[in-house]
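To: structure desk
From: M.T.
Subject: fold request, one chain
Message: Could you run this one when you get a chance? Sequence is below, nothing fancy, just the single chain.
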Amino acid sequence: MPGDHLRARPNSARLLHGQIGDSYWDIAVRSPAARLQPYVHGDYVGYTEWSGTTNRRREFPGPFAVMVIEFGPPIRIFQAADRGRCSSHRGGFVGGLSDAFALCEHDGFQQGIQVNLTAIGARLLYGIPMSELSGRIVALRDVLPARHQTLGERLQDVADWDERFDLLDGALADCLTEARDRTRVVSWAVRRIEETGGVLELRGLARELGYSQKHVITLFRDHVGIPPKLLARIVRFNRLIQHLRHGGQGMWTDLALEFGYYDQAHLVRDVRQFTGVTPTKVRPLVTDLYGLLS
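Reply: Done. C-alpha cells follow.
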C-alpha cells in the first residue's frame, strides 16, 4: 500500500502516492463535512494520474450515484449495455445507479474529484427523479443549479486539496439546503436494505413500511432510480467486493452463504452480470489503489 501522509489539522486530506503498472497516482482523500455525510457514500477522492499509454479501467456498479468533477481532458466511458456508445463530458459527469459495469478510458492523464452520493443525496442534490439517471451518464453541468455551473473551474483554480474540499463542501451544502426533502420514507427503506446486507425481501420491506409492494417500487424508482430488489442485489454484491478488496479469503461456496446468496451458482450469476467476468477473474480487478478507495 502506498505511503499515507497525514496533515496536522483536523479532517485534513490524506495524501497517497502510488504506481500501478506504468500509471502513477497522486490521490487526496477526505471525509465530507458532518452535515453532508448522510448524503455522501464514503470520502471525497481527489486524483491525478499519469500513464505512458492509453489507460482503460473496469468500474463495477455500487449502491451509490457517481459524480466526477474533471479538471483535465474528459475521460471516455463505455457502458456495458451498449459497447458502441461512448460518453465524454468536459468538466465532469454524473451517473445514476446501474446494474452493469462500465469501461473508463483516458489517453494518459486525468485529474479531478470523485464524489459517490447516496441515492437519496443525489435525488435531493439534482432535484430530478433518479429514474432519469438510472444506467445513464450525463454531463455534470446538466444537473447542477445555474449558480454552480462553474464549480469545476473554481475547484481547478485552487491548488490546495483541503481548500478544494472546503469549496466542494460549501457547494453541496448550498444545493442540499434548498432541496425539499420528501425522501424520509425511502431513506429509511434504503438504510434497512443496507443494514441487512441486501438480504431483505421486498415483501418484508413493504410490510414494515405499511405500503403495497407496487407503491414501494414506485417510490424507489423516483428517489433511488432502481427497484428495491435490484438495490438489494447491488448492496449484497458490493459487500462481497469490499470483502475481496480488503484481502478477504474464502471458497466461493462459503462466500455465497456468508453474503446471503442462495448458493454458489447464484453468486456467480450476479458477479457475471455486474462485472462481465467470472468470480475468479474479479479478484485481481479489485486490488488496485483506486479500487481500495471506492
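Reply (cont.): Residues 161-178 form the longest helix (18 residues). Let me know if you need anything else for the meeting.
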